[in-house]
């Protein structure tokens, strides 16, 4: 069993209060795929330029990520430059150069079109819908988006959301999409737009999952060393989806476990710049952090 992801592969230049890096491997598709690969097989659809180095391809292949859908186009790879203050929940974009990503038109290989599990990373909602039109009969579709698309392509996004089972967005995006300041009311409005489940990513404050009949909240893992939050949301999504695909269980209780596994993966990626920590990560560490997450919220009931 595998998960299909459509997203970006990029070079990131990032500055935080704890250091800075230039043109390191990044992109929503990259972070998601790397995280999900610890749980299940991954098929990635994205585009890179002629300047994309072989060493990055070797890394992705070392994670057993299927790259048949990764195309090389004439030109330069997508680049993003950003910075963070001590409030690491908010990135400040300094430069964005879409390059080959600007004309990206996802064309799924035939073997990808049978995918049962699909994750639409943060790209133009018109492209997200185009991908869904190429997938024959998905069992589960999850989607991410951002304030840029919510404000600039709202109608296209709403059309896409009618075909989405799980929407994963942050707190500000939730309020913007619903046009409602109260988070609980906003969640109810978004569930009426199509998704059966809404997962609200809240950075250092954790995650809240809303469905028709329940609300589940999980904390973020308390870390002493946080170097770079770039890609944490995509890494969370990769762990969340990867676990669901690996277990083939879409029950409420299993989704709650998937939330914690996703949170564990996000807690690792922020411990270093780019994918530095993920390259050294072992699955046993993931299981141990899952157990520590459980202890964070475990308590005795009323006598």
Instruction: Name the CATH superfamily classification.
Output: Ribokinase
E-strand count: 14
Number of domains: 1
CATH topology: UDP-N-acetylmuramoyl-L-alanine:D-glutamate ligase
Q: Can you tell me the CATH architecture? A: 3-Layer(aba) Sandwich
Low-pLDDT runs of 5+ residues are: none
Q: Strand-residue fraction?
A: 15-25%
Helix content: 25-40%
Shape: globular
Question: Gyration radius, to the nearest Å?
Answer: 18 Å
Order of helices and strands: EEEHEHEEEEEHEHHEHHEEEHHHH
- What does the largest sheet look like? 10 strands, mixed
In CATH's first tier, which class applies? Alpha Beta
Structural class: alpha/beta
How far apart are the termini? 44 Å
How large is the count of helical segments?
Answer: 11
Summarize the structure in short:
With 303 residues, the chain is of the alpha/beta class. The chain has helices at residues 28-36, 54-62, 125-134, 147-152, 154-161, 171-178, 183-191, 232-247, 252-269, 276-280, 283-296, and strands spanning 2-6, 10-16, 19-26, 41-49, 65-66, 70-73, 79-83, 92-97, 117-120, 140-144, 166-170, 197-201, 207-211, 215-218.
Supply the key terms.
single chain; 303 residues; alpha/beta; UDP-N-acetylmuramoyl-L-alanine:D-glutamate ligase; 10-stranded mixed β-sheet; 4-stranded mixed β-sheet; 14 strands; 37% helix
Q: What layout of secondary structure does this protein have?
A:
Layout (H helix, E strand, L loop, with lengths): L1 E5 L3 E7 L2 E8 L1 H9 L4 E9 L4 H9 L2 E2 L3 E4 L5 E5 L8 E6 L19 E4 L4 H10 L5 E5 L2 H6 L1 H8 L4 E5 H8 L4 H9 L5 E5 L5 E5 L3 E4 L13 H16 L4 H18 L6 H5 L2 H14 L7
Parallel strand pairs: 1-4, 1-9, 2-7, 4-5, 4-6, 9-10, 10-11, 11-12
Antiparallel strand pairs: 2-3, 7-8, 12-13, 13-14
């Amino acid at each position: 069993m595998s998960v299909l992801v459509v997203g970006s592969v990029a070079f990131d230049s990032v500055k935080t209060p704890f250091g800075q890096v230039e043109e390191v491997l990044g992109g929503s598709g990259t972070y998601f795929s790397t995280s999900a690969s610890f749980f299940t097989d991954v098929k990635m659809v994205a585009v890179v330029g002629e300047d994309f180095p072989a060493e990055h391809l070797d890394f992705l292949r070392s994670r057993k990520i299927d790259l048949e859908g990764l195309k090389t186009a004439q030109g330069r790879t997508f680049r993003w430059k950003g910075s963070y203050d001590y409030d690491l929940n908010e990135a400040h974009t300094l430069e964005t150069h879409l390059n080959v990503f600007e004309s990206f038109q996802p064309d799924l290989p035939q073997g990808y079109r049978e995918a049962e599990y699909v994750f639409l990373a943060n790209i133009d909602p018109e492209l997200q819908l185009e991908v869904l039109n190429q997938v024959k009969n998905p069992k589960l579709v999850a989607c991410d988006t951002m304030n840029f698309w919510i404000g600039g392509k709202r109608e296209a996004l709403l059309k896409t959301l009618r075909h989405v089972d799980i929407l994963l967005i942050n707190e500000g995006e939730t309020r913007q999409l619903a046009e409602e300041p109260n988070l609980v009311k906003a969640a109810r409005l978004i569930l009426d737009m199509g998704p059966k489940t809404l997962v609200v990513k809240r950075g250092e404050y954790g995650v809240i999952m809303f469905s028709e009949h329940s609300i589940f909240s999980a904390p973020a893992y308390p870390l002493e060393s946080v170097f770079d939050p770039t890609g944490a949301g995509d890494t969370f999504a990769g762990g969340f989806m990867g676990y669901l695909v690996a277990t083939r269980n879409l029950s409420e209780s299993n989704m709650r476990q998937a939330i914690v596994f996703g949170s564990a993966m996000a807690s690792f990626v922020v411990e270093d710049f780019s994918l530095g920590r993920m390259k050294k990560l072992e699955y046993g560490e993931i299981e141990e952090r899952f157990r520590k997450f459980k202890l964070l919220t475990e308590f005795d009931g009323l006598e």
